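Quick one:
INPUT:
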């Protein structure tokens, strides 16, 4: 300490005024003792720790988790720091709130199942492409299980000696009659043929027949058209055994080949037995029986009130048909009327007999003399051939669009649609949602809407009358729709307010079916009716033996 004091006095004593006072205070301090400190007792020199260790030491340590299996003394009194592991009991839910919550959960589960069915199972969404699901019908393309129907064929003239419609069964077939001053042009206009197409037909036909003599002659006119409205084949039955036929030869604008046939007419009645195969394909069963595919369309039209042969047939269903066949010379020309029909299937059993009671018109009656016709057809879709792989896509399904209930029919583009009942066209328009649509008011006031159409068929306008079973439109994808289809809506007005009706009532069973239309066989003619249909019933029963 003395040496330190002496050095401070020597250095600062003369230059700083207060240095003498500071040195005086140092002089009052006691002198340090000369006790030796052992070397081992000296504080070891600390070394600097690494930065990672210093950071780890500065962090607060986490408290060890208590074991959930610790032993708990039931007699111990809880301290202020103790806490209970049990959750606080919740307040009981109100019954109404619990019921509303359960309904919400159930509704969400149902919607999830519906979406899974639509997107994953039926393949109507884009998710099926993730794992290579079944192909769906592509708009504007010919792939998938539902390709467009009524495609324009490359050649409509197949070379058959008398059957001008041979090989054209997939086209749209329409019929008319040149009666009450109706000319060929007017008849084709009523069938929906455009004026330029009619000019081509008349330019080729008038070289073989005087068109002025056809007007009002009562001659039947049959036309096969593609879905775009082009005439592919035409037949005019001028007289018994005398027909005028024309078919489009290639794609030339004026390329119609016309022939005038006259042969002795012969009509036969045959019994045809049909059994549906594993795919329940009606046309395949007809062809297997050695008949023309045209017969399938005629059979479906007779059964349209009781069985939808597009969706309801099952394997091993049996049909017996008594049909008239018309021949020109030695060549089969076409089928005539179906005189009797018997259908025994898994979904229905039907017997129909064509009969004309005294003072009445020809119509189909069942074995008890009741009319077969009903107020509504079984389906708005006219029969057409669809591949067996796509038949599972055809049954209708319910859907709600902006609060409106309707039935959705998945169909190929160009599928023919028929009027489900007699009525009047009350609206024919186009908008962004429904696309091309058509509204018909039936005789009982029920309104029927056909939406998402490709086009209408025939010269339809507001006020036009339509008959049950008449082809009125073709299915398409106009408006807001992901694929080709038909949306059908039914409603009626009560006190000026529309009331939606169940669209699936067309396919109802039992007492919920549409009522029968027409008068039954009069009681005084029942015995004669039974005698007249007895041979037909026996022939139908013997058809499958």
């Amino acid at each position: 300490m003395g040496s330190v004091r002496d050095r401070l006095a020597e250095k600062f004593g003369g230059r700083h005024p207060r240095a003498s006072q500071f040195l005086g205070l140092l002089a009052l301090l006691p002198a340090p003792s000369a006790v030796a400190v052992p070397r081992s007792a000296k504080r070891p020199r600390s070394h600097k720790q690494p930065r990672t260790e210093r950071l780890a030491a500065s962090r607060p340590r986490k408290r060890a988790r208590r074991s959930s299996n610790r032993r708990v003394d039931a007699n111990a009194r809880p301290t202020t720091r103790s806490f209970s592991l049990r959750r606080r009991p919740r307040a009981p839910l109100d019954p109404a709130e619990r019921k509303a919550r359960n309904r919400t959960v159930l509704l969400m589960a149902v919607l999830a199942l519906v979406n899974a069915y639509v997107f994953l199972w039926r393949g109507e969404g884009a998710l099926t492409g993730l794992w290579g699901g079944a192909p769906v019908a592509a708009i504007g393309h010919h792939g998938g299980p539902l390709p467009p129907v009524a495609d324009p064929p490359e050649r409509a003239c197949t070379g058959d000696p008398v059957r001008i419609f041979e090989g054209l069964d997939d086209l749209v077939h329409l019929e008319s009659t040149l009666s009450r001053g109706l000319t060929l042009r007017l008849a084709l206009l009523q069938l929906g043929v455009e004026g330029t197409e009619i000019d081509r037909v008349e330019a080729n036909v008038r070289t073989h027949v005087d068109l002025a003599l056809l007007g009002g002659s009562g001659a039947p006119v049959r036309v096969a058209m593609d879905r775009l409205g082009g005439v592919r084949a035409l037949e005019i039955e001028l007289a018994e055994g005398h027909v005028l036929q024309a078919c489009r030869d290639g794609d030339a604008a004026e390329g119609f080949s016309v022939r005038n046939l006259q042969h002795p007419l012969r009509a036969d009645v045959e019994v045809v037995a049909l059994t549906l195969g594993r795919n329940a394909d009606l046309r395949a069963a007809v062809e297997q029986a050695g008949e023309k595919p045209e017969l399938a369309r005629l059979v479906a039209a007779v059964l349209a009130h009781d069985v939808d042969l597009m969706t309801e047939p099952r394997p091993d269903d049996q049909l017996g048909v008594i049909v008239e066949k018309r021949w020109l010379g030695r060549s089969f020309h076409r089928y005539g009327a179906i005189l009797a029909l018997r259908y025994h299937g898994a979904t229905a059993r039907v017997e129909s007999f064509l009969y004309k009671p005294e003072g009445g018109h020809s119509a189909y009656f069942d074995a008890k003399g009741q009319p077969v016709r009903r107020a509504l057809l079984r389906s708005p879709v006219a029969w057409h051939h669809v591949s067996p792989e796509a038949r599972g896509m055809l049954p209708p399904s319910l859907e709600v669009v902006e609060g409106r209930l309707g039935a959705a029919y998945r169909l190929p583009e160009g599928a023919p649609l028929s009027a489900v009942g007699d009525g009047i066209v009350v609206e024919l328009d186009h908008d962004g949602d429904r696309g091309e649509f058509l509204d018909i008011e039936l005789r009982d006031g029920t309104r029927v809407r056909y939406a998402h159409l490709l086009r209408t068929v025939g010269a339809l306008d507001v006020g036009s009358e339509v008959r049950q079973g008449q082809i009125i439109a073709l299915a398409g994808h106009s408006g807001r729709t992901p694929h080709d289809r038909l949306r059908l809506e039914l409603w009626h007005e009560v006190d000026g307010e529309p009331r939606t009706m169940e669209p699936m009532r067309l396919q109802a069973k039992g007492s919920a079916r549409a009522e029968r239309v027409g008068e039954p066989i009069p009681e005084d003619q029942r015995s004669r009716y039974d005698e007249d249909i007895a041979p037909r019933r026996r022939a139908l029963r013997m058809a499958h033996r």
